[in-house]
Write a structure and sequence with these properties.
The chain contains 24 helices and 9 strands. The chain is an alpha/beta fold and 653 residues long. It folds into 2 domains: 355 residues, Collagenase (Catalytic Domain); 200 residues, Neutral endopeptidase, domain 2 (Orthogonal Bundle), CATH 1.10.1380. The strands form 3 sheets. It has a 4-stranded mixed beta sheet with strand order 2-3-5-4. The chain is globular, with a radius of gyration of 25 Å. The relative contact order is 0.14. InterPro entries: MetalloPept_cat_dom_sf, Peptidase_M13, Peptidase_M13_C, Peptidase_M13_dom_2, Peptidase_M13_N. Keywords: Hydrolase, Metal-binding, Metalloprotease, Protease, Zinc. Its cofactor is Zn(2+).
Length: 653
């Protein structure tokens, strides 16, 4: 049997006992140059590139078939064509911005600001708040609007205050000035003065933003208010003007969940205290910033120079066709996904995946039954939640209807606006209706997976179900170390520091006894402390934020632990064979490590440490150091690089 391990990627001079990531991936890392259009590159990126090429082939084949007007195939082809028509886009320059800029010129009051923000939301321009329709965390049987903090142009509030981001902060006003100049709305020194006002306003907004750690807290970010409560929280904010601009249905904001109430209070104060001229500057900046990817080369180049080169150290913008594919994916993703599944996802892969999921669920069940730190009452609730899990594999059972979306082959910015408005309307239409438990929040061609606590579901799109994650013809050990551990990771999110606060129905409810929660939190704190001391080889001198990454680290740890247990369940009653000189347990850990093969530019690695809830790739691979099963598989001893004394190994599940 083929093992499914790429031995050519490894570095035999590095022992797995010292560095599992380096042993399994070191050869690939040493000889691989990050593509010029990427900040990081690895297994996920390679699979995404492959899926991207497959999607381009699908799009071009559809377009060449000259489909009938109004069909979804025609919309796919016309949308792609509108982006690829570089000559027309260059001829138009920034003229497509004129209607937006004229509307902003007419802004005279804070009510006007809110009205324009509502209108701009429908065109793809984010504002002071980002409304998200999702299931109510405390009542998963209904939809509600969440109001998420927004309004800044840098990646995170920390960029406006931390010394570590001083260079980015210094470069930012010049970028804003150049973009405002390119928009045609300013001439001479006026753009510099406007940029200074914009950055000052964003700095004020950022001061009230919650940080990344606070934003992970499911309880802290849940404040349900009715319309009167929202108006009390945000006095003098004209929500009626905003809702009219959004074209929201009646009663859309009768109840909302304020994710960060401090931001809403600060926003209300700023709308009253900041002069209208500054708000007009900021609105113009928001427009040219959001719509830059769809404008002439000069605007695209300036936008990339800051957000690509300066922020992430990426030297080259992605090819135009790749950016065109991304647009089609965003606007018509499930239409393309239906064709992708027909061409690239064999039915037997779904059957094999369901078998893996069953074994992972059984491994979790046995684990909960034997956890020494979990009491009977909490165990009963945990098992009930496990029984209620819904796995979704490959693709949705019903596909999205795009019949009401209008696409024109010669109107790129109009297409972007109409596609955004389509999504805004589709989501707002959920309010007051039954929860759609068949909906997917990723397309089948997405190389990723997710856990949704509100629906208590794990979702694995078709595109991730390929080597090295999953090889239908390869050895079980490598599949369990790859996709099996990823399945365990996603199930584990249902029991991580935040997911564990939701019950089996998807409701935010404390189902833990105090002593069991204290035991769990103590283990999570040990994991936080462990990762706080680590730094990635891609960003030497920069430590991981253990509190930011703890949820994903718990997911990795649980995925490894339960994935390994599920692998043993898969061959109960028989001994795993030795293949390629490796035992089954060793192949399992190889399978895990090769999933995280990759490297990053230093600037991008530093950026991700500030905002990404995932640990760097090398540290994810080497999370195996916490497992006694890893120490036993490779005879890891004191003094070895991966050695962790038994009493310091963190084990939650």
């Amino acid at each position: 049997m083929r093992s499914g391990i790429d031995r050519s990627a490894g570095d035999p001079s590095i022992r797995p006992q010292d560095d599992l990531f380096g042993h399994v991936n070191g050869g690939w890392v040493a000889r691989t140059e990050i593509p010029a259009d990427r900040g990081r590159y690895g297994t996920f990126d390679q699979l995404r590139e492959n899926a991207e090429s497959q999607v381009r082939d699908i799009i071009t084949a559809v377009a060449e078939g000259d489909p009938q007007p109004g069909t979804v195939a025609r919309k796919v082809g016309d949308l792609y064509s509108s982006f690829m028509d570089a000559e027309r886009i260059e001829q138009l320059g920034v003229a497509p911005l004129a209607p937006f800029l004229q509307r902003i010129d007419a802004v005279q009051t804070s009510s006007d600001v809110m009205a324009v923000l509502g209108e701009l939301l429908r065109a793809g321009v984010d504002g002071l708040v980002h409304p998200i329709v999702n299931t109510d965390d405390r009542d998963s049987s209904r939809y509600v609007v969440y109001l998420e903090q927004a309004g800044i142009g840098l990646p995170d509030e920390a960029y406006y205050r931390d010394a570590a981001h001083e260079a980015i902060r210094a470069a930012y006003p010049g970028h804003v000035e150049r973009m405002l100049t390119l928009s045609g709305a300013y001439a001479g020194d006026a753009a510099a003065a406007a940029a200074a006002r914009v950055v000052d306003l964003e700095t004020r907004i950022a001061k009230a933003h919650w940080d990344q750690v606070a934003n992970r807290d499911a309880v802290k970010t849940y404040t349900l208010v009715d319309r009167a409560g929202l108006e009390e929280l945000t006095p003098d904010v004209d929500w009626d003007a905003y809702l009219a601009g959004v074209q929201a249905p009646e009663g859309a904001f009768d109840q909302v969940i304020a994710r960060q109430p401090d931001h809403l209070r600060s926003m209300a104060a700023a709308l009253t205290e900041v002069d209208i001229e500054t708000w007009r500057d900021w609105l113009r900046w928001r427009v040219v910033h959001a719509l830059a990817p769809y404008l002439s080369d000069a605007v695209v180049a300036e936008n990339f120079d800051f957000y690509g080169r300066t922020l992430s150290g990426v030297p080259q913008i992605r090819d135009r066709w790749k950016r065109g594919v991304a647009l089609v994916e965003d606007a018509l993703g499930e239409a393309v996904g239906q064709l992708y599944v027909e061409k690239h996802f064999p039915p037997h892969a779904k059957e094999r995946m369901l078998e893996l999921v069953d074994n992972l669920v059984e491994a979790f069940r046995r684990d909960f039954d034997s956890l020494e730190w979990m009491g009977a009452d909490t165990r009963r609730e945990a098992l009930a939640k496990l029984e209620a899990f819904t796995p979704k594999i490959g693709y949705p059972d019903k596909w999205r209807d795009y019949s009401s979306l209008e696409v024109e082959a010669d109107d790129l910015l109009g297409n972007v606006a109409r596609a955004t408005a389509f999504e805004v309307d589709r989501n707002l239409a959920k309010l007051g209706g039954p929860v759609d438990r068949d909906e997917w929040f990723m397309t089948p061609q997405t190389v990723n997976a997710y856990y949704n606590p509100g629906l208590n579901e794990i979702v694995f799109p078709a595109a991730i179900l390929q080597p090295p994650f999953f090889d239908v013809d390869a050895d079980d050990a490598v599949n369990y170390g790859g996709i099996g551990a990823v399945i365990g990771h996603e199930i584990g999110h249902g029991f991580d520091d935040q997911g564990s606060q939701y019950d089996g129905e998807g409701n935010l409810r404390n189902w833990w006894t105090d002593s069991d929660r204290a035991n769990f939190d103590g283990r999570a704190q040990r994991l936080i402390a462990q990762f706080d001391e680590l730094e990635s080889r891609d960003a030497p001198g920069h430590k991981v934020n253990g509190a930011l990454t703890v949820g994903e680290n718990i997911g990795d740890l649980g995925g490894l632990t339960i994935g390994h247990a599920a692998y043993r369940i898969s061959h109960e009653g028989g001994e795993a064979p030795v293949i390629d000189g490796l035992t089954g347990d060793q192949r399992f850990f190889y399978g895990w490590a090769q999933v995280w093969c990759g490297l990053a530019r230093e600037a991008e690695a530093v950026r991700l440490l500030a905002i990404d809830p995932h640990s760097p790739m090398d540290l994810r691979a080497n999370a195996a150091r916490n497992l006694t099963e890893f120490h036993e598989a490779f005879d890891v001893r004191e003094g070895d690089g991966m050695w962790v004394p038994e009493d310091e190994r963190v084990r939650i599940f």
